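Running this now, will post back.
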Amino acid sequence: MESIPWGVVAPIALVQLVLIVLALRDLIPRREVNGPKWVWAIVIVIFGLIGPVLYFTVGRRDA
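Update: finished.
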């Protein structure tokens, strides 16, 4: 059984966690987004790295 390459996995997991937290912190106080806020919250949490990137590129509506 091979061991998990933590030197690769840990930084990716940390980046994913930071992106999720930043996206949710941006989403919660924002008045308007492209689509329902609850859908964006699910996309951010469920889709890992891709969810927050999608939110920042597509979901945000500039005031």
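The chain has one domain: 9-59. More later if anyone needs it.
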